[in-house]
Write a structure and sequence with these properties.
8 strands; mainly beta; about 40% strand; single chain
Length: about 100
Amino acid sequence: MGTIFKWNGQYFGFIHNGNLFDSSSRYTGWIEEGHVWRADGTYFGQLVNDSYILRNTMTMPRMPKMPHMPPMPPLPPLPSMPQMPRLGWVDALGG
């Protein structure tokens, strides 16, 4: 289970068994090969340092995928710390 933060350090949620949950354990998407997809199948961004979801503004957007069946929500983990910004990248979570 990994914790996910907005780039500004604000806790967003966590990853459990390849699925993304917000801080209230609501299913928000899934992870495939380092890329994160929203629950509706639209592209969210790339998983960076196992703690951030960033979208590269210099690449073409990815095509949507078929949504997955929402899993049972687990208990959320405790949050941790922020990082410095990356040139050319934006926080896909809006932080």
